Predict the structure.
Amino acid sequence: MTGETNRGGNGRFTASIKTAARDFEAAEMRVRGRSLQQIADELGYASRGHAHNGIMRAFAALPSDEAEDAKRLDLERIDRLIARAWDVMERAHVAWSNGQVVRRRTGEYELDGEGFERLDDKGNRIPLYEEVLDDGPLLSAIDRIERLIGRRARIFGYEAPARSRIEVVTPDMIESKIAELEAQLAVNDPAGRA
């Protein structure tokens, strides 16, 4: 299947029964959670991008009820992923280095049960240490949540580009405007001194 292209006389992609079936199989694999690379490798798409395009063609060809079901399923998954990433974001993560938790001195010393400073076997005070927190997992979770929210926005379509109004100006419209302006000049300057 690799290298298979279906182009019509106008150079546009035209789906054959074979490619449509492959696209639907790719969509089913995606719904089951397979990655685009896995789908491309297994079904013979030239790249992840081609697999994505096939999946989008399959979703576009679905009757609207099925497409809405697929959309709803994706939104539910995204919500679950956001919830999991949020849990990671809210949890404290300690820093590790060379297989050890990174700790730093607090400036205080260990106390015994009666409130006196404890001493080691050499008679020195025993310093207190605290674990150093790692912001890396927090920042990664924030990035992941942001990407998931963006994906959710694209599905809902509320991140759609702003609509533009394009007006075509014809020669007749220009002539009409010139005549209108000339008429206004004639009213404002009846002697024709302009």
Observations:
- The longest helix spans residues 64-90.
